Structure formats: structure tokens, C-alpha cells
Amino acid sequence: MTDSRPWRGVLVATALPLNDDLSVDYDAYAEHCAWLVANGCDGVVPNGSLGEYQVLTPEERTRVVETAVAAIGGGRVMPGVAAYGSAEARRWAEQAGGAGCGAVMLLPPNAYRADERSVLAHYAEVARAGLPVVAYNNPIDTKVDLVPELLAQLHGEGHIQGVKEFSGDVRRAYRIAELAPELDLLIGADDVALELALAGAKGWVAGYPNALPAACAELYRAAVAGDLATAEPLYRQLHPLLRWDSKVEFVQAIKLSMDLAGRHGGDCRPPRVPLLPAQEAAVRAATEKALAAGLA
After folding, report:
1. What InterPro entries does this protein's entry cite (predicted)?
2. What is the mean pLDDT of each run of 10 residues along the chain (296 residues)?
3. Contact 49, 79 (CB under 8 A)
4. What is the DSSP string of the chain?
5. What does the pLDDT read at residue 4?
6. What's the CA gap between 296 and 216, in Å, rounded?
7. What is the structure's pLDDT at 3?
8. From the centroid of its chain, how far is CA 223?
9. How many angstroms separate the Cα of 33 from the Cα of each of 67, 132, 211?
10. CA 236/CA 295 separation, integer angstroms
11. What is residue 187's predicted lDDT score, i.e. its pLDDT?
């Protein structure tokens, strides 16, 4: 990628293929990264929550990043570097830089409900690693809310260059643009992709392209271009799947859709458990409908 802002475009929060014994299938992961780029995506975000980073060993987490870089080039790879401690998160950012990555994505402190001073100190510490940092606002799971005012302060102090916005509150896009016009807004939840694209998003850290990359890439490009004649019907077709990205079982759902689309989805590591029969039936029906509509 030639853009000096490698967090722009469709970046897939990659699911991680596991073997039957739940060890990481690195060859399948390399192939998956290359396949996503070949099908219209701009890059990948390894070691996000969709990549089950919390249940990887440090050795696995390191190798996942190196595998992605070897497959598609470091300019297309923006690893998640979340950790309980700021020093550990900074070490992950340094590892990403050493592997050749162009940027990193960072949650706020998430072992406890951090106050604003802690959040600022956390981002300042990780920014010292020297790579551009994209904040990840997920108040649903972390209980720490990077509100627009706090994002503007983080950006003003040079700690972040973008934000993956997962709150689901589309109104924030306009407030962020007012307070920090140079801060890049990235779509963080698949089921508000159209709304945030129209509100000026510069990228999409996306889950469902793991199963349907070409259709999701087409949706994003039409939406940011204001081509509603293309984007709106496609969004309606995809939405029964996209909404799973905001549910607790998003990893299992996306992996099931991948299996149905002929990809390597497979199982998750504990404590994640398989979908309930009704959930599986809903994901299966929505995926099969999308495949029948030619969206694969």
C-alpha cells in the first residue's frame, strides 16, 4: 500500500484458523490473509478480539503477526496490541514495528474501569513505541468509553491517529469530526457500516469480510462514494449477517459463515463455546441466503 495511513480502507479483523487440537494453523492463516487482499480488502488486523488474542500464548501472538506480514506485507497489517499493562501493550507495539507493520490498534486499559488520566497515560506510553496508534473504542466490552472529547484530547496530544468506533452511536461521528477533524474515524461495528461510511469514515475494521470479502468491500466503497443505489440494497442483503458482529457470539458466528462459504472457520478456544442450535440455525440461514444471492 502506498498510503502513509495504512489504517484506511477495509481492514479485516481476521478470524484465526485452528487445527482439530485447537493449535493455530499458520499456513491456513497466511492463505486467508492473501485471499482477503485478493478479494478486495486493503489489509488485516490480527490479534483483535475476533482473532481470539486473549487466549493465545505470547509465542502464538507473535507468530500470527509475522505470518500476516509475510503473507501480504507489513504495510497492510495493523495488529491489535491490547494488554492489561501499558508496558506490555508497548512491547506488543514494538514487536509489531519490528515485524514491519505500519500501525497498531489499541484498546484502552481493560482490566478495570480506568479513569481519563489512566487512559491518557496508557496511550502515551504505547505511542512511544513509534508506530501510529488507532484507538479502539469498545465501551460495551471494556467499560471504558473513549468519548469524543477524550478522543480529541488523545489526538491533540499526538497519541492516536484514528479510532475504531464500536459504540454503535452513529451521532458520535459528527461530534468527533467537529472536535478533531484530522482524526480518522473507522467503522468499528459491521451493522452500522453504511451509517458511519456516510458520516465520513475513512476505513472499516470489519468482521464479516472473513466470509464475504468481495461483497463487503463493494459495500464499503459504494458507501464512502455516496453511491446509495449500490450500497443500500447490498447493505440490506448483508445486514442479517453484519449484526452478528455486535453480538457476544460474533467469533463463532463469523467462523460458521466462513465454513459455509468454503473457508476455514472451525472451532474457537475455550471459554468460547459453540453456538446454541437456534443461533446456529439463524447464522446458517442468513449465510446460505447471502451465498444464494451471489454475495460470496
Report:
1. Aldolase_TIM, DapA-like
2. 81 98 98 98 98 98 98 98 97 98 96 95 98 97 96 98 98 98 98 98 98 98 98 98 98 98 98 98 98 97
3. no
4. ---S-TT-EEEEE----B-TTS-B-HHHHHHHHHHHHHTT--EEETTSGGGTGGGS-HHHHHHHHHHHHHHH-GGGB--B---SSHHHHHHHHHHHHHHT-S-EEE---TTTT--HHHHHHHHHHHHTTSS-EEEEE-HHHHS----HHHHHHHHHTTS-SEEEE-S--TTHHHHHHHH-TTSEEEE-SGGGHHHHHHTT-SEEEESGGGT-HHHHHHHHHHHHTT-HHHHHHHHHHHHHHHGGGGSTTHHHHHHHHHHHTTS------TT--PPPHHHHHHHHHHHHHHHHTT--
5. 83
6. 10
7. 62
8. 18
9. 9, 22, 12
10. 12
11. 98
Length in residues, the chain: 296
Quick one: cell of 231? 450500497
Place of cell 489499541: 106
Tracing cell 494488554 back to the chain, one arrives at 83
